[in-house]
Amino acid sequence: MILPCGHKICKQCLDMKKNSKNVNDLSCPRNQQHTFTKGQEFRVDLDVLDYLEKNDFINIKCDIHQMNLIDQYCVKTSKFLCKDCTLDCKQCKNQPSCHIKVQQS
What we know:
Order of helices and strands: HEEHEEHE
InterPro entries: Znf_RING/FYVE/PHD, Znf_RING_CS
Keywords: Metal-binding, Zinc, Zinc-finger
CATH architecture of the largest domain: 2-Layer Sandwich
Number of strands: 5
GO molecular function, one term: zinc ion binding
Protein name: RING-type domain-containing protein
Distance between the termini: 24 Å
Organism: Stylonychia lemnae (Ciliate)
């Protein structure tokens, strides 16, 4: 995800920051002086997705099914999914254009 300051953060880290109950304004992990509100929208970093598609050394485990490697990236939820999560993705309802294949080694 791309923050308003231009720095980047992964979706899971951004969600953890947003879900923090003690803070209303969030700060950039690279520069604490850059702040933003929890309700703000963020752009998906398409350059990172392109990089992941072109490189076959990525071995990221699924957050839900920790024995499975990620297989797809969901454009609607901005999350990486294993094959099981891809089949269960209720946001996309099996729309092929909603998921981007991520190569694995």
